[in-house]
């Protein structure tokens, strides 16, 4: 059974390690330098977000970071991708935490397909990420009719 709990400062190192493993498996478009820069920035955001660890009895599945009704981050352990955990977490985020929007890297085609399957639609695009790096960002909004 999948459970979640609010992350604490003591979890940050584990979360960053999980983020790094996930990014290495899914974000091939990021340069090494940008990955390192983002990795250093992550802990600064955590105190301002609802960061949750998702787990089963025996292992960590991933983490989410929520800002009001916006999903800032959903990262799964690479070994857990494709096993239905992401779908379960998204349904919980939508139904339990009121998530209505998410941003995704345009180059991350698997993530885009995932969010579209979960009922999100692309509403706009930025040519760079929030820090001005050259990674286009798609803005998606939840549309229950799309499910």
Describe the structure concisely for a colleague:
With 147 residues, this protein is of the alpha+beta class. It has helices at residues 12-26, 32-45, 85-97, 109-117; strands spanning 3-6, 50-55, 60-67, 70-76, 101-105, 120-126, 137-142. α1 (12-26) packs antiparallel against α2 (32-45).
Topology of this protein?
Layout: E1 3-6, H1 12-26, H2 32-45, E2 50-55, E3 60-67, E4 70-76, H3 85-97, E5 101-105, H4 109-117, E6 120-126, E7 137-142
Parallel strand pairs: 4-5
Antiparallel strand pairs: 1-2, 2-3, 3-4, 5-7, 6-7
Helix pairs in contact: 1-2
Describe it:
- This protein is an alpha+beta fold and 147 residues long.
- Helix content is 35%, strand content 29%.
- It has helices spanning 12-26, 32-45, 85-97, 109-117, and strands spanning 3-6, 50-55, 60-67, 70-76, 101-105, 120-126, 137-142.
- It has a 7-stranded mixed beta sheet with strand order 1-2-3-4-5-7-6.
- Strand 4, helix 3 (85-97) and strand 5 (101-105) form a beta-alpha-beta unit.
- Helix 1 (12-26) packs antiparallel against helix 2.
- The radius of gyration is 14 Å and the shape is globular.
Q: What general form does the structure show?
A: globular
Low-confidence stretches: none
Largest sheet: 7 strands, mixed
Rg measurement, Å: 14 Å
Helix content: 25-40%
The chain-level mean pLDDT equals 94
Q: Note the beta-strand portion.
A: 25-35%
Strand order of the largest sheet: 1-2-3-4-5-7-6
**How many DSSP E strands?**
7
Counted by DSSP, the helix tally is 4
Structural class of the helices, strands and pairings? Answer: alpha+beta
Oligomer: single chain
How far the N terminus sits from the C terminus, by CA atoms, comes to 24 Å
Order of helices and strands: EHHEEEHEHEE
């Amino acid at each position: 059974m999948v459970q979640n709990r609010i992350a604490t400062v003591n979890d940050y190192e584990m979360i960053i390690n999980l983020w790094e493993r996930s990014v290495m498996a899914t974000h091939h478009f990021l340069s090494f330098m940008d990955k390192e820069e983002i990795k250093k920035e992550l802990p600064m955001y955590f105190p301002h977000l609802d960061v949750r660890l998702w787990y089963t009895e025996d292992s960590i599945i991933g983490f989410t970071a929520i800002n009001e009704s916006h999903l800032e981050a959903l990262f799964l352990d690479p070994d857990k991708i494709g096993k239905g955990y992401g779908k379960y977490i998204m349904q919980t985020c939508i139904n339990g935490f009121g998530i209505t929007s998410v941003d995704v890297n345009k180059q991350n085609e698997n993530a885009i397909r995932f969010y579209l399957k979960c009922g999100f639609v692309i509403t706009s695009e930025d040519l760079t990420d929030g820090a001005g790096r050259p990674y286009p960002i798609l803005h998606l909004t939840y549309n229950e009719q799309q499910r």
